[in-house]
Structure formats: C-alpha cells, structure tokens
Amino acid sequence: MDSYALGYEKKNMNSRRCHKILRSMEWTWILKDGIGLIEVRRRKYQIYSFNSDSWKDIHLTPNRHLRFYTRDVSLKGNTYWLVRRDTNWFMRRPHCNLSRREPFRGRVRDNSDLFLQNRLIMEERVRETPKFFLLCFDFTRERFGPPLDLPFHYRQEDSVPLSSVREKQLAVLCQRYDTLEMEIWISNKIEPEAASWSKLFVAVNLKTRLTFPFEHGSFFVDKGKKVIVVFDRDLEMHCVAYIIGEDGYF
User: Which residue numbers delimit the F-box associated beta-propeller type domain (predicted)?
Assistant: First the structure.
C-alpha cells in the first residue's frame, strides 16, 4: 500500500533545486464491533532528500478520512492529487441480532421491525456521500495544503484525470459517464492553498464516436488550438491516442 511522489524544494533563483520524494505508507485492519465489520486505516509519511541522502518521518494532517483517487501530477515542484473524503470506514455486511436490542429512535413492534431497524442502523453507518477535492503537497514546507474545490459538479462514476500545461498550469478533464461529454478546465491560479479556473472547451456528441468512458487514461492539452490528446484503451484493449477538440472534432 506504499505510494511515492516526486517534487522539489523552491529556493532562490540562483540555487539548485533540492529534489525530494514523499512516501505514503498505509496499514489496514478489519475489526468487529456490535453491529458489523469496521475497516481501520492508518497512514504514515516520510520524506527523502537527495541533498542529504536520507529519510525522515513527517507528521501530516491528511488522515484516514482522505483517499487518493488519481495518479499524481507534478507542477512547479509540488504534487497534486484528486482525493475523496470518506464519511466512514464501515464495510457493508448483513446484520441482525434478535437477542440484543441496539439503541435507536422509534418503537419496535415485533421481530421483523427489529430486523428492519438493525438493517437501517447498519445502512446509516455505511452510507457514503463522497466528494472529490484537489489536494497539493508542498515540498518546500513539507506539508499538505487544504482540500481545494473543483470548478464543476460531478458524480462518482464520472472520469476526472489531471494533467499539466507546460509546467505552468494544471488541467482537469471531466468526462460524464452517461453522455461521454467532456469538459476541459485550466487553472488561472494554482497554489497549495488556492486555485481558480477557466473552462477551455466542452466536447459534446462523443457517443457517436466512443462507446465507453475513459477510465485509466492520461491526457495533455494544446491550449492554443483547444485540442486534447487522451491516451487510453479501446474495447479490444488496444492502446489508442484520441485527439478531441471543439465542435465535434475527433
């Protein structure tokens, strides 16, 4: 469960860059409580410095309630991810204990009601309303910035990869799962603690050209021509480069 990200420390213009590696280590336990199974996660972080050729432990704020969703993108020495904040860590399991009444609001009329109430308690504990954020690790200060809102509304099924534009801007692609429509957004300002966005273009009517959404692809942007190149696989698992632009250009 280890993952790594590469970046560099920003110093004055005349000094050489100090490159660093961020290491994230995650442990998972499965425990049982009075209602069902609970998944417990712990994460530890380390920094490797190329200048000192050594590792050190660092204590960071993103805890078990944040899950990294996309591959990282390096920009201006920092690293960006799309992350999701979980509302809980419970695994869905059918559960009914007729010999023991769990505390809940409402009145139990019979065993069937008790079973229903126990299921509702379990459903409430496993329900998730995940929201995705942009998260940056600042290699100069060696800490994460706050979760940053994305410039569009989306669903969990939508595809949202990240990219960079000439090491100056961050690009976000959002492809809708049902219509395959794409929105391309470019950052006007991107820092560990703040971001602002403008829409580059929207590609519509892709259902006549594509039969599936992009899932694990990467992309890059030609900002001047308003064209993107997406690398992914087709239905026959062939590696394909799709060139997509405005007004149905494909």
Answer: 1-85, 124-250
Give the pLDDT of residue 86.
62
What share of residues in the chain are helix, strand, coil (percent, to 5)? Answer: 10, 45, 45
- Three-state secondary structure call for residue 112: helix
- Mean of all residue pLDDT scores within the chain: 78
Task: Tokens 């805890």: give the residue.
Answer: 63
How high is the pLDDT of residue 250? 86
Sorted by sequence, the CB contacts under 8 Å of residue 206 that are 6+ apart come out as: 179, 180, 181, 182, 244, 250
What φ, ψ does residue 244 adopt, rounded to 5°? -130, 135
| Of 20, 24, 17, residue with least CA distance to 3 | 24
* E strands present in the chain: 3-9, 18-32, 37-49, 54-58, 66-68, 73-75, 78-85, 131-138, 143-144, 162-165, 169-175, 182-191, 194-203, 218-222, 227-233, 239-245
Cβ neighbours, 10 Å, residue 38: 17
Note the pLDDT tens digit of each residue in 47-73: 999 999 999 999 886 555 667 766 789
pLDDT in the model for residue 140? 93
Residues 6 or more apart whose CB falls under 8 angstroms from that of 199 comprise 151, 183, 184, 185
Rounded distance between C-alpha atoms, residue 95 and residue 119, angstroms? 7
Distance CA 116, CA 185 (A): 46
